[in-house]
Write a structure and sequence with these properties.
alpha/beta; 9 helices; 5 strands; binds adenosine-5'-diphosphate
Protein backbone atom coordinates (compact mmCIF):
# COMPACT_ATOMS: atom_id res chain seq x y z
CA UNK A 1 0.00 0.00 0.00
CA UNK A 2 1.33 3.42 -1.00
CA UNK A 3 1.69 5.80 1.92
CA UNK A 4 3.47 8.92 0.69
CA UNK A 5 1.07 10.65 -1.62
CA UNK A 6 0.53 13.95 -3.28
CA UNK A 7 -2.59 15.56 -4.71
CA UNK A 8 -2.23 17.90 -7.62
CA UNK A 9 -4.96 19.88 -9.34
CA UNK A 10 -6.59 23.27 -9.75
CA UNK A 11 -8.31 25.09 -6.89
CA UNK A 12 -11.72 23.47 -6.58
CA UNK A 13 -10.62 20.18 -8.17
CA UNK A 14 -11.50 18.29 -4.99
CA UNK A 15 -8.01 17.64 -3.65
CA UNK A 16 -8.91 18.57 -0.10
CA UNK A 17 -12.03 16.39 -0.02
CA UNK A 18 -10.31 13.33 -1.43
CA UNK A 19 -7.15 13.79 0.63
CA UNK A 20 -9.24 14.07 3.79
CA UNK A 21 -11.21 10.89 3.04
CA UNK A 22 -8.13 8.92 2.18
CA UNK A 23 -6.08 10.10 5.12
CA UNK A 24 -8.88 9.26 7.59
CA UNK A 25 -9.39 5.80 6.11
CA UNK A 26 -5.68 4.98 6.37
CA UNK A 27 -4.72 7.04 9.43
CA UNK A 28 -2.33 9.07 7.35
CA UNK A 29 -1.39 12.61 8.07
CA UNK A 30 -3.27 15.08 5.85
CA UNK A 31 -1.04 18.02 5.20
CA UNK A 32 -2.84 20.84 3.42
CA UNK A 33 -0.76 24.01 3.26
CA UNK A 34 -3.95 26.04 2.63
CA UNK A 35 -5.60 24.62 5.75
CA UNK A 36 -2.51 25.15 7.86
CA UNK A 37 -2.24 28.76 6.70
CA UNK A 38 -5.94 29.39 7.34
CA UNK A 39 -5.50 28.03 10.86
CA UNK A 40 -2.69 30.51 11.47
CA UNK A 41 -5.00 33.31 10.29
CA UNK A 42 -7.81 32.08 12.54
CA UNK A 43 -5.51 31.98 15.55
CA UNK A 44 -4.20 35.42 14.62
CA UNK A 45 -0.56 34.38 14.97
CA UNK A 46 2.35 36.39 13.62
CA UNK A 47 2.49 34.17 10.60
CA UNK A 48 -1.26 34.43 10.15
CA UNK A 49 -1.10 38.20 10.08
CA UNK A 50 1.72 38.04 7.54
CA UNK A 51 -0.20 35.86 5.08
CA UNK A 52 -3.79 37.04 5.51
CA UNK A 53 -3.86 39.68 2.79
CA UNK A 54 -1.88 37.56 0.36
CA UNK A 55 -4.29 34.64 0.72
CA UNK A 56 -7.38 36.78 0.46
CA UNK A 57 -6.08 38.31 -2.75
CA UNK A 58 -5.50 34.86 -4.26
CA UNK A 59 -1.72 35.24 -4.58
CA UNK A 60 0.77 32.63 -3.40
CA UNK A 61 2.47 32.87 -0.03
CA UNK A 62 6.29 32.89 -0.28
CA UNK A 63 8.07 29.59 -0.92
CA UNK A 64 10.13 30.12 2.21
CA UNK A 65 7.11 30.41 4.49
CA UNK A 66 5.27 27.40 3.13
CA UNK A 67 8.43 25.31 3.24
CA UNK A 68 8.79 26.17 6.91
CA UNK A 69 5.21 25.09 7.59
CA UNK A 70 5.63 21.86 5.65
CA UNK A 71 8.85 21.00 7.48
CA UNK A 72 7.21 21.68 10.82
CA UNK A 73 4.31 19.41 10.08
CA UNK A 74 5.77 16.58 8.05
CA UNK A 75 6.09 13.66 10.42
CA UNK A 76 9.42 12.04 10.64
CA UNK A 77 8.10 8.74 11.96
CA UNK A 78 6.71 6.02 9.80
CA UNK A 79 3.12 7.18 9.49
CA UNK A 80 1.96 7.82 5.93
CA UNK A 81 1.14 11.31 4.67
CA UNK A 82 -0.82 13.05 1.96
CA UNK A 83 0.36 16.40 0.69
CA UNK A 84 -2.41 18.63 -0.64
CA UNK A 85 -1.77 22.05 -2.15
CA UNK A 86 2.00 21.69 -1.98
CA UNK A 87 4.15 21.98 -4.03
CA UNK A 88 2.60 24.70 -6.20
CA UNK A 89 5.60 25.63 -8.33
CA UNK A 90 8.89 24.10 -9.47
CA UNK A 91 10.94 25.76 -6.78
CA UNK A 92 8.65 24.29 -4.08
CA UNK A 93 8.91 20.89 -5.79
CA UNK A 94 12.70 21.04 -5.63
CA UNK A 95 12.71 22.08 -1.97
CA UNK A 96 10.28 19.31 -1.12
CA UNK A 97 12.44 16.80 -2.93
CA UNK A 98 15.40 17.75 -0.73
CA UNK A 99 13.37 17.43 2.47
CA UNK A 100 12.02 14.05 1.44
CA UNK A 101 15.48 12.75 0.63
CA UNK A 102 16.62 13.86 4.09
CA UNK A 103 13.83 11.95 5.82
CA UNK A 104 14.05 9.09 3.35
CA UNK A 105 10.35 9.18 2.46
CA UNK A 106 10.02 9.63 -1.29
CA UNK A 107 6.65 10.34 -2.92
CA UNK A 108 5.16 7.12 -4.23
CA UNK A 109 2.27 8.47 -6.25
CA UNK A 110 0.90 11.80 -7.40
CA UNK A 111 -2.83 11.93 -8.05
CA UNK A 112 -3.66 14.59 -10.58
CA UNK A 113 -7.32 15.56 -10.30
CA UNK A 114 -8.37 16.91 -13.64
CA UNK A 115 -11.47 19.05 -14.04
CA UNK A 116 -12.79 21.49 -16.67
CA UNK A 117 -12.34 25.16 -15.79
CA UNK A 118 -16.08 26.02 -15.92
CA UNK A 119 -16.83 23.27 -13.39
CA UNK A 120 -14.23 24.39 -10.90
CA UNK A 121 -15.25 28.02 -11.05
CA UNK A 122 -18.86 27.01 -10.31
CA UNK A 123 -17.71 24.85 -7.42
CA UNK A 124 -15.59 27.59 -5.89
CA UNK A 125 -18.38 30.14 -6.12
CA UNK A 126 -20.70 27.71 -4.36
CA UNK A 127 -18.12 26.98 -1.66
CA UNK A 128 -17.96 30.66 -0.80
CA UNK A 129 -14.80 30.70 1.30
CA UNK A 130 -13.33 34.12 2.01
CA UNK A 131 -10.92 33.73 -0.91
CA UNK A 132 -13.67 32.43 -3.21
CA UNK A 133 -14.87 35.71 -4.72
CA UNK A 134 -14.96 36.03 -8.50
CA UNK A 135 -11.86 38.23 -8.72
CA UNK A 136 -9.82 36.09 -6.37
CA UNK A 137 -10.85 32.92 -8.14
CA UNK A 138 -9.67 34.37 -11.44
CA UNK A 139 -6.29 35.21 -9.90
CA UNK A 140 -5.94 31.76 -8.35
CA UNK A 141 -6.87 29.94 -11.55
CA UNK A 142 -4.39 32.05 -13.56
CA UNK A 143 -1.61 31.41 -11.06
CA UNK A 144 -2.47 27.74 -11.13
CA UNK A 145 -2.15 27.62 -14.91
CA UNK A 146 1.08 29.54 -15.00
CA UNK A 147 3.00 28.15 -12.06
CA UNK A 148 1.39 24.93 -10.84
CA UNK A 149 0.35 23.21 -14.05
CA UNK A 150 3.97 22.63 -15.17
CA UNK A 151 4.24 20.24 -12.22
CA UNK A 152 2.00 17.79 -14.07
CA UNK A 153 4.76 17.23 -16.62
CA UNK A 154 7.41 17.27 -13.87
CA UNK A 155 5.78 14.35 -12.03
CA UNK A 156 4.92 12.60 -15.27
CA UNK A 157 8.61 12.60 -16.16
CA UNK A 158 9.31 10.99 -12.80
CA UNK A 159 6.69 8.31 -13.62
CA UNK A 160 4.73 9.21 -10.51
CA UNK A 161 1.59 10.68 -12.07
CA UNK A 162 -1.82 9.01 -11.87
CA UNK A 163 -4.53 10.78 -13.80
CA UNK A 164 -7.93 11.02 -12.08
CA UNK A 165 -11.03 12.39 -13.77
CA UNK A 166 -12.30 14.84 -11.15
CA UNK A 167 -15.57 15.61 -12.88
CA UNK A 168 -17.46 12.65 -11.38
CA UNK A 169 -19.25 12.08 -8.11
CA UNK A 170 -17.23 11.97 -4.95
CA UNK A 171 -17.54 8.23 -4.31
CA UNK A 172 -16.59 7.19 -7.82
CA UNK A 173 -13.49 9.33 -7.59
CA UNK A 174 -12.45 7.97 -4.21
CA UNK A 175 -12.83 4.34 -5.28
CA UNK A 176 -10.79 5.12 -8.38
CA UNK A 177 -8.06 6.56 -6.17
CA UNK A 178 -8.19 3.62 -3.77
CA UNK A 179 -7.64 1.17 -6.64
CA UNK A 180 -4.60 3.10 -7.74
CA UNK A 181 -3.11 3.14 -4.22
CA UNK A 182 -2.22 -0.53 -4.11
P1 LIG B 1 -7.21 26.04 -3.26
O1 LIG B 1 -6.60 24.73 -3.66
O2 LIG B 1 -8.70 25.99 -3.40
O3 LIG B 1 -6.56 27.21 -3.93
P2 LIG B 1 -5.86 26.02 -0.73
O4 LIG B 1 -6.52 25.83 0.57
O5 LIG B 1 -4.97 24.92 -1.21
O6 LIG B 1 -7.04 26.27 -1.74
O7 LIG B 1 -4.99 27.37 -0.74
C1 LIG B 1 -5.53 28.61 -0.38
C2 LIG B 1 -4.46 29.71 -0.46
O8 LIG B 1 -3.37 29.43 0.45
C3 LIG B 1 -3.77 29.87 -1.82
O9 LIG B 1 -4.51 30.66 -2.73
C4 LIG B 1 -2.42 30.51 -1.41
O10 LIG B 1 -2.56 31.89 -1.14
C5 LIG B 1 -2.10 29.84 -0.09
N1 LIG B 1 -1.26 28.63 -0.30
C6 LIG B 1 -1.64 27.35 -0.07
N2 LIG B 1 -0.65 26.50 -0.39
C7 LIG B 1 0.38 27.24 -0.87
C8 LIG B 1 1.66 26.96 -1.39
N3 LIG B 1 2.11 25.70 -1.50
N4 LIG B 1 2.45 27.99 -1.77
C9 LIG B 1 2.04 29.26 -1.67
N5 LIG B 1 0.83 29.60 -1.21
C10 LIG B 1 -0.01 28.62 -0.80
Amino acid sequence: MKKHLLFLGAPGAGKGTQAELLSKANSYLHLSTGELLRKEIEMDTNLGRQVKDIINSGELVSDELVLKIVKQNLNKDNKGWILDGYPRNLSQANSLNKVLIEINQPIEVVFYLDIPEEVLIKRLLLRGRKDDTEDTIRTRVNIYKETTEPLIQYFKDLSLLEYIDGDRDLKTISSDIKQKMV
